[in-house]
Design a protein that fits this description.
Blueprint: E1 4-5, H1 9-19, E2 36-40, E3 44-50, E4 60-64, E5 67-74, E6 92-99, E7 110-114, E8 117-123, E9 132-133, E10 143-144
Antiparallel strand pairs: 1-6, 2-3, 3-8, 4-5, 5-6, 7-8, 9-10
Length: about 140
């Protein structure tokens, strides 16, 4: 049931911190992660990805086997020929990969994008939902497994 994140994300963050790289791409050439929150409800795992300033047309959500990959691109706000005074907002391609546990149903994934937040719902597979099992014998009640 657990969702694991990209194991190299923390290494990338530490490398960027160590070398002082800015923006989504660090010195390793890999793209940086997308901030997210994830939580479980009775019927699904829900994830909210922060993608402020990202054109919805640039957001790509793909599932391959047990991996869910979010890719988005934020263009620079400085127009061509403009002379930036400050350029602190990261631009470029952002990627975040989540590995889906066996208890999730990748075929039922739903996603919406609103106000810079990509919301993804990954349903819990029917086989993984709690169910009652009847126990035979006298005076026994059904118990939850």
């Amino acid at each position: 049931m657990l969702m694991r994140t990209d194991p190299f994300r923390e290494v990338d963050r530490l490398t960027r911190d160590l070398f002082g790289a800015s923006g989504p791409t660090g010195p390793t050439g890999r793209t940086g992660g997308v901030p997210m929150d994830a939580w479980r409800t009775d019927d699904a795992v829900r994830v909210a990805f922060d993608l402020p300033g990202v054109d919805p047309e640039s957001v790509d959500l793909q599932v391959e086997k047990d991996a869910l990959t979010v890719t988005a691109e934020r263009a620079s706000a400085v127009p061509e020929g403009g002379d930036p005074l400050f350029a602190e907002r990261p631009t470029g391609t952002f990627t975040r990969r989540l590995f889906l546990g066996d208890a999730l149903d990748p075929d039922g994934i739903e996603a919406t994008y609103d106000a810079g937040v990509l919301r993804v719902k990954v349903p819990v597979a029917e086989r993984a939902k709690p169910r009652r099992i009847e126990i035979g014998g006298s005076g026994r009640r059904a118990i939850r497994s």
